[in-house]
Amino acid sequence: GENVEQHPSTLSVQEGDSAVIKCTYSDSASNYFPWYKQELGKGPQLIIDIRSNVGEKKDQRIAVTLNKTAKHFSLHITETQPEDSAVYFCAASNLRGQGAQKLVFGQGTRLTINP
Amino acid sequence: DTEVTQTPKHLVMGMTNKKSLKCEQHMGHRAMYWYKQKAKKPPELMFVYSYEKLSINESVPSRFSPECPNSSLLNLHLHALQPEDSALYLCASSQDPATDTQYFGPGTRLTVL
Description:
heterodimer; A: mainly beta; 5-stranded antiparallel sheet; 0% helix; B: mainly beta; 7-stranded mixed sheet; 4-stranded antiparallel sheet; 57% strand; globular
C-alpha cells in the first residue's frame, strides 16, 4: 500500500521568511496530493492540492510542486506570518474514478513562525 | 461553503456507556468519512460511506458502529469503549467518493474514563 513520509517534523522560521515542507510517496499510481493545515483544537483545513497532471500550483503565498518521477511533492509558504503557525499534513491518494478514495497522510510538520 | 459540522464538541464517557457522535453536511456531498486522530499523529481512516452505503471499514473494532441515515448525516455509535479509544474523532465529506477533495469538520474530542 501507499506510504507517505514527511519532513521535517518541526520547523521554526522567522516571520517574513519562507518555509518548505517536503513529502515523498511510494505508490507511483497516486495522482492526488492535498495539503492540510491543522490548528490547535480544530479539524484539518485544506489549503492547497495538486493533481498529477500538473507540476506546480500556486495560491497567493502558498505553492505546491510535484515531481512524479522522483515521487515527491513540496509545500512552499512565502512571507510567513504568525497565523501560519500550525501543524501541516501532506497526503496522497489514487483517484481511480471508481470506488471510494483513501487518503494516506504524512506524519505532520509543526511549523512555528517567530515574530 | 465547505462546512462540515460535528456534535458534540467534547464528550466524556465511561467504559459501560453508549453514546453517539454526529456529523452533518449540506453541500450535497455523496461521500462521508470517519477518522480517528491521536495526539501528535495524522488522522487515521475508520469508515467511508459512499452514496449512503458503507464502502470501506478499516478493520475497526465492533464497539464502533457507523450509520448513515441519509446523504447529509453520519453517525458513529460508541459502546463499551476502552480508555485507549480516547482521541479526536473527525468527520469529512467529499462531493464524489472517487475523485474529489475531502473537507473535514472540527472534530469531537472523546475521553473514555
